[in-house]
Structures are given as C-alpha cells and as structure tokens.
Design brief:
heterotrimer; A alpha+beta (241); B mainly alpha (126); C mainly alpha (116); B: 126 residues; mainly alpha; 3 helical TM bundles of succinate and fumarate reductases; 5 helices; 79% helix; 0% strand; C: 116 residues
C-alpha cells in the first residue's frame, strides 16, 4: 500500500493556554484527515480533542480549517492535499471550546432566528394526514434542504467574522429553503426576519460559502434570491398606499 | 470585533479562493475610487479660480511622473466596473456561471487595460 | 414601528439603486474617460472644458453622472461600514453621515459645474 510521512500541525488550546503541536506519522493512501486525527488520539496523544461522529460526511460534526480552508475532516483525503505538512485549526468566526472543538451556540441561535420550520396559518391535525407535495414541488427547494449545518460556510464568510450580528450563509439558505416550500405560509413573516441590516443585505457575494459547501447547497445563490424577494416585496409596499 | 480584525478578514488572502480574491480586489478598488472621487472634485476647484490655476494643475498632473498612478487608477476602474457587472448579474440571480464569467471578464479587462494604458502613454509622452 | 417600516422599505431600494447605478456608471465612466483622456490631448485644455460644460445637454449629463457616482461611492462605503459589528447608535451615525457627506459632495460638484 502506498504510504508517506505526514506532519499534522494542530492548533491546540484550552482555557488560556495556546500552542501548536506537531505530530508526525506514516499515512497510507485512503486515510482521511479525520482518520489521521484518530490515529494521533490512539497512538500519539490521547489528550487531543476534536468533534466527529458519522465519518461519512452527513452529520456535519468534523468541520475544521485544513491548510487554511474550511473542510469536513472525514471527506478530505490526506493524499489529495498538496503538502505533507497539514495544518489543522478549529472553525473560524466561532468561539473555541477546546482544541479543534468550536462552539456552535451562536451559529444555531442564528439558525433558529429565521424560523426554520413550516409555518401554517391553520395547523392540520395528525388525523387529517400529511401535507401532500408533488416531486416537482420538492425539487423547488431540495437543494437548500441538503444543508447539514456543518458551519463551513459560516467559517469562511468574511462578513460573518466582522459583523457578529450577521445571520450568515447557512441560516439564510435555510430561510430560503422554507420560502420555496409550497407548504409554508410564513412568507412575509420570515422575509421580515432576514431582510434587515443584519440579514441578506450584508452579503456582497464573495460566494466563498458556496465554494466550501460539502453538500453543494449554494447559500450565495439563496441569499441573492432572498434579496430579489425582499426588493419585490418592498416595491409592492411602496405602491400599495 | 475590532476594525483591525475586520480588515484582516476582508482583505486577507489566506483561506480564500478565486471568488474571494475577486471580493478583496473589488472592495479595495471601490475604496480607492471613492477616495479618488473626492480628490478629483477637490482638484477641480481650480476651475473656478480661472484659466491660469487650471492650466497650472494640468501642467503638473498630466506628466510622465503621474502616468503610473493614472494607469493604476484606470486599472482599478476597469476591474471594479467589469467585476461589478458580474456581481450585478449574479446578485440579480441571472446566472450560475459567475466564476466562468470572472475569467472571461478578467481577460477582456486585461486587454482593455493594456490598450488604454497605451492611449494614456501616447497622450502624456508623445 | 413606523421607523422600522421605512427602513424595511429603503434597504432593498438602496441595494437596487446600487446595482442600477453600477450599470449606468459602466457607460458614463467609459464615456467620461474617453472624452477627457483618450480622444485627444487637447480635451483637457481650459477652453475645451469650458466649451463642453457650456452645452446644456452635456452639463445635464454631467450633473446626472455626478449624482450617480456620488450615490454609488457613498452607498458602497456605507455598506462596508455596516459590515462591522455596530451598535444601533453607531449604525444611525453611519447612515446619517453617508447622507450628509453624499449631499455635500453632490452640491459641491454641482456648484463646480455651474460656476464656469
């Protein structure tokens, strides 16, 4: 099996102590960065902390900055990376808890802010059955429903870093997912939550969010579509009275 | 978050890809061009002070010394304009191919920049 | 509540104007640069500048150009400042400051155009 020596440079911290630790080991083809971290934990340093769960790119736990770019550790092959020195840091634009474990509280608070659930004027009871949808109606928003809340887009967004109030790409994409759902009746209510100065108008289409998204959700596109909806709504409001 | 951190995030190149570089350059040229707008209007105050003052300003500024600045400024204008066109198209949600568009407009902009720099050179030097 | 309503109406309109003014500037700046720098060496001479500005249609285009370029520049700078974490008060200062600086710049530019 093809093997090579690699050095993991891991940014470690706990409380106030911060340090860069180097771990050298032999990686074989097929190993992911997450496999590398597990190897370090098992054989070199049991105190290393990182968050991971499914190992197959669907739980969204192992997002981290690998060689400067936010990626899922479980979906990144060591042999696909350009260098044999691999720097690993916790996600940016979030507080840290320990080592590679970032604090997602603010991220999830912002997600909650856009009411990411079906809003109905009159709720159906369970006995009345489900809200029926055709495949075409599903296709309208399916792409935006694939988000796994891994925080990569939020971490790469320059504005999410400079403005703590900005809702960020994931939360806005989530809002758009419900705007495009024909079962949802919260259109105007939700639009008011996302078209403020800390909502879609903070996006200037750097579009890095769509570049790093492991699920190809394209949050940048979603935010531009929210802008369009907000403009049309404002235009209508202007001429209504 | 402090202004210093924000400047690092907006203008730092580490961790960004091509669309990120486009953003950095767009923001930078936008700020430069806005500052130049103020300077431009301030310089033109000489227009109100009669022909001598204005001609003296032109004598001083339309010279080989200022040519590199002129060329950089026109480059900033071309970049901000063409990338801005891409942003308008993308922000109106008219295309998915904004990255390809960046390459095409970048090439057009580069050719335009070289040609326009030659025109500026011709006016000043020849 | 009324104030909030106005803000909700205006932010999308500002954005739309930013996009439209950008497109218009593409044409206006190109025309301006061509007329003053690329067409001929004599274009920048005092008599030629005065002659250009004494024509009413050209003056009108210049005033429109001024309005659009000042709007686009100031609104762009406003957006950059709003990208910072700001208190409600600081945000009001940015918005108010942009309006005041924009108006002063436009009035000064228009004064220049009409004074010769």
């Amino acid at each position: 099996m093809e093997e090579k020596n690699v050095v993991f440079v891991v940014k470690r911290f706990y409380n106030d102590s911060e340090e860069e630790r180097r771990y050298e080991f032999t990686a074989s083809r097929g190993m992911t960065v997450l496999d590398g971290l597990y190897y370090i934990k098992d054989h070199l340093d049991a105190t290393l902390a990182f968050r991971a769960s499914c190992r197959m790119g669907i739980c969204g736990s192992c997002g981290m900055i690998i060689n400067g770019r936010p990626m899922l550790a479980c979906s990144t092959q060591i042999f696909d990376l350009d260098s044999d020195i691999i720097t690993v840091e916790p996600l940016k634009n979030m507080d840290g808890i320990k080592d590679l474990v970032a604090d997602f509280n603010e991220f999830f608070e912002k997600h909650k802010k856009v009411k990411p659930y079906l809003i109905r004027k009159v709720e159906k009871s369970v006995e009345e059955g489900e809200y029926i949808q055709t495949p075409d109606q599903l296709k309208e928003y399916r792409q935006y429903a694939l988000c796994i809340k891994c925080g990569l887009c939020y971490s790469v967004c320059a504005i999410a870093g400079s403005n703590n109030e900005y809702l960020g790409p994931a939360s806005l994409a989530s809002a758009y997912r419900f705007m495009k759902d024909n079962r949802d009746e919260g259109g105007e209510e939700r639009l008011l939550l996302v078209d403020g100065h800390d909502g879609c108008w903070r996006c200037h289409f750097m579009a890095e969010c769509s570049e790093v998204c492991p699920k190809e959700v394209d949050p940048a596109k979603a935010i531009q579509m929210i802008k369009r909806k907000a403009f049309i709504a404002a235009f209508k409001r202007l001429f209504r009275r | 978050m402090s202004l210093k951190n924000a400047i690092g995030l907006w203008f730092g190149l580490r961790g960004k890809s091509f669309t990120g570089y486009a953003f950095v350059l767009h923001r930078l040229t936008g700020i430069v061009l806005t500052i130049y707008l103020f300077l431009h209007l301030a310089f033109l105050t000489s227009l109100t002070q009669g022909e001598e003052a204005y001609t003296a300003l032109i004598r001083k500024t339309v010279t080989p010394t200022f040519l590199p600045f002129d060329i950089l400024l026109v480059g900033a204008t071309i970049y901000h304009g063409l990338n801005g066109l891409r942003l308008v198209i993308a922000e109106f949600g008219l295309t998915r191919y904004h990255k390809e568009l960046l390459w095409v407009l970048g090439l057009i902009g580069l050719i335009l920049w070289i040609y326009v720099s030659y025109l500026l050179y011709k006016i000043v030097v020849v | 509540m009324e104030e909030m309503h106005t803000k909700k109406v205006l932010e999308p309109i500002w954005w739309f104007f930013q996009m439209i003014s950008g497109i218009l500037l593409l044409i206006l700046v190109a025309g301006h640069l061509f007329a003053t720098h690329f067409a001929s060496k004599e274009a920048l001479e005092y008599s030629n500048v005065v002659a250009r500005l004494s024509s009413a249609p050209i003056k009108a285009i210049y005033i429109l150009f001024l309005l659009i370029v000042v709007y686009h520049g100031i609104n762009g700078m406003r957006a950059i400042f709003l990208d910072l974490t700001l208190s409600e008060r600081a945000r009001q200062i940015v918005n108010g400051g942009a309006l005041v600086i924009g108006m002063i710049t436009f009035i000064y530019g228009a004064y220049l155009a009409f004074s010769i």
